[in-house]
Amino acid sequence: MDLLHNLLPLPSGYFGASSVLYDLGGLIVVYGPAGGAWHINIEDEPRWYRGKTTIVGAGLLEMDVILGKDPEFVERIVSVARDLNRNFVALCGTPVSAIIGVDLKGLTQAIQKRLNTPVLCIKTSGTESYLEGAEKAALALAKTFLEPTVKIPRSVNILGAIHLDMGHPQHLEPLLSLLNENNWKVISIWGGYSSLEQIKHSASASLNIVVGLSGVSLARYMYEKFDIPYIVGIPVGRKVQKTYLSLLEGIPPTLPQTPNSQKALVIGEPIVSYSLKYFLEAELGIKTIVISVLPYKDLLLSPKGLKGSFIIPSKEDIYTCSEPRIADLMNKSDVDYIIADPLYERLLYQKKKFIPLPHIAMSARFYWDMDYEYIGPRGEEYFKKQLGIT
């Protein structure tokens, strides 16, 4: 077990599921005690603030858990779903449902029999990371709503754009502009921007772009089911955008070996971190080490459907959630720059240049509105300014 003294724990599975489903007009039910959904809305969902919410708790009391009142639970969900007329209902598990052995699939089937609205079963337990919950939710959406259809040339879906990894939706705008300016049509964005109706047309895309780790499983499913290839990564900087456009056409990137004597650590979500590493090494010549807080071994595979990737690892790159290990690496004498969520600055006891790059999964809503960028020309300007490069 990794003990945390200065950092916050990453959100659990049903937080990730809610991030995927939040803006799609569904009713997300968290099977837990009264107030079970409150933690999502208050801590990890900056898109909600004292207004209407799509996330509700099961409202279980101690006697409900002991006696088992599933029929009453099913009746409440059916009643609420009918009153609100939502696009779908999603039932997510919590530690409570896992401990008492709740049959989530059975409850989902019981609710579905009473409703014409699709009911999704998201088998989370509250003990996994938000990544697993987000993956399960995205796959459940795809299996429920996507059907084979005619492909649209030069069209893309953007996968894995959940707010826990990408932050405010405005950060994707440089990528959307790049695609639009080069005659690529965006069909859907999974995790932000798109409505359920747009999501339903995802099978018509000719290419998927994976910008967050939670989109990898979905990309592989969509290749197997709908023959849609995919690429992995985001463009940081003006020069890298040219490489990225080639990547869209299926030309793999290469990393120029032009490092200077400076060294940076990038800590966070792996796809964002490796994309930033490509920019720092290829454009600025800064040797960069990635410390991923999510497991990324699958990214190193080359399965069918992968046209290209910005994931170019070195032997020094690691995956760890250990606060002491991260602190040791941050404070090494040869490290000049740290790029990470502002909470990681608490681990520094050596003088280093710290560049904030909020990771919402780590710091929740604390730095949601911070003035920062990391994609396209905006990202280049932000990092160069922070690095003191004119």
What does this molecule look like?
This protein is α/β, with parallel strands linked by helices and 390 residues long. The chain has three domains: 13-145, 3-Layer(aba) Sandwich (Rossmann fold), CATH 3.40.50; 155-230, 3-Layer(aba) Sandwich (Rossmann fold), CATH 3.40.50.1980; 238-387, Rossmann fold. It is built from 16 helices and 14 strands. The strands form three sheets. The protein has a five-stranded parallel β-sheet, sandwiched between helices. Helix 11 links the parallel strand 7 and strand 8 (230-232). The mean pLDDT is 88.
User: Percentage of helical residues?
Assistant: 25-40%
Straight-line distance between termini: 44 Å
SSE series: HEHEHHEHHEHEHHEHEHEHEHEEEHEEHH
CATH class of the largest domain: Alpha Beta
The quaternary state of the protein chains shown equals single chain
By CATH, the topology of the largest domain is: Rossmann fold
Structural class per helix/strand content? alpha/beta
- CATH-level-4 superfamily name of the largest domain: Nitrogenase molybdenum iron protein domain
List the helices and strands and how they pair.
Elements: H1 13-21, E1 27-30, H2 38-44, E2 55-57, H3 62-67, H4 70-84, E3 89-92, H5 95-99, H6 104-114, E4 119-122, H7 130-145, E5 155-159, H8 163-166, H9 173-181, E6 185-189, H10 196-200, E7 207-210, H11 216-226, E8 230-232, H12 238-248, E9 263-268, H13 270-282, E10 287-292, E11 306-309, E12 318-319, H14 323-330, E13 337-340, E14 353-356, H15 360-363, H16 376-387
Parallel strand pairs: 1-2, 1-3, 3-4, 5-6, 5-7, 7-8, 8-11, 9-10, 9-13, 10-12, 13-14
